[in-house]
Amino acid sequence: MPSHTRGLLIALGGVLLVSFDALMVRLAAAPHWDIVFWRGWLICLTLALWMLVNRQSFTLPTRVRDRWLIIATIILLSGNTTLFVLSVANTAAANTVVILAASPFFAALFSRVFLREPVRPRTWAAIFAAVAGVLVVFGGGLQGGTGIGDFYALLLAICLGAHLTILRRFPAVPRLPLICLSGAVAGLMAIPFASPFALSLQSYAVVGVMGIVQMPLAMLMIAAATRYISSPEVSLCLLVETVLGPIWVWWLLSEAVPELTFIGGGVILLTVAIHGWLGLRESRA
């Protein structure tokens, strides 16, 4: 099998697993802070075991300022874990995933401001289009009383964009240790608000699958895919989550997708797809 095809299949497999994330949060049927607690700690322990078996090490940068940036990205990642669960708990799953799809454009904006990287005109156009799509989704959320969940999703997209910007500053830093440590931070943050030992058997089963199998395996597959295909191609594969995530929740739980989410999500999805396709074409030129 050609390495490019192998990379695409691995990436799509990882994204397919990620696409069940919102559904798993719904099926857990548990208080959101309990989900954050177990999800964080189980991801941490699973990835720590994987790194121990594979003898992976993690070394902080030598400069103190750079070390603080790495600590910041761990905190941002833990915020991602927490904000995703809070968002899905307070709005339609479709709203969460379509707003999250705008995160690459926040990364581009932060890269321009903090890394002084030039932003191409097509990226600026994409940023404005994505913001317009997010505002449409927000409008529907305010009408339907789910504005707080949409706000969490927007914070999630901003945190993820900031996280991607810091990783761009340190491309040699391994990703898995950061994800592992962020799980521990998320679990620690949840302790004051959680009652993690009072869940039903169904809830324990779902969060167990989520934290031990689904998310760690998805993260490992997406990380492995970058060895074979380019970043723009991985970004395009990630669009599959935006499409499939709401479909799983609708199909299995009959959760309707708000009309304005269809419109705003369509704008965001089309924008990301066109922008990613143009970037892929440039990288192959």
End-to-end CA span = 24 Å
The proportion of residues in beta strands is under 5%
Question: How many helices?
Answer: 12
Query: Topology as H/E string?
Result: HHHHHHHHHHHH
Largest beta-sheet characterization: none
Gyration radius from CA atoms, angstroms: 18 Å
Which regions have little confidence, pLDDT < 50, spanning 5+ residues?
none
> Into how many domains do the coordinates divide?
1
Which overall shape is indicated by the principal axes computed on the Cα atoms?
globular
Write down the overall mean pLDDT: 84
| Extended strand count | 0
The secondary-structure class comes to mainly alpha
- Percent range for helical residues? over 70%
Brief digest:
The chain has 285 residues and is an all-alpha fold.
Describe the structure.
- The protein contains twelve helices and no strands.
- The protein is mainly α and 285 residues long.
- It has one domain.
- It has helices at 3-18, 21-28, 32-53, 64-90, 93-100, 103-114, 121-144, 147-169, 175-190, 201-225, 231-253, 259-284.
- It starts with a helix and ends with a helix.
Which features does this protein show?
transmembrane, 12 helices, EamA_dom, mainly alpha
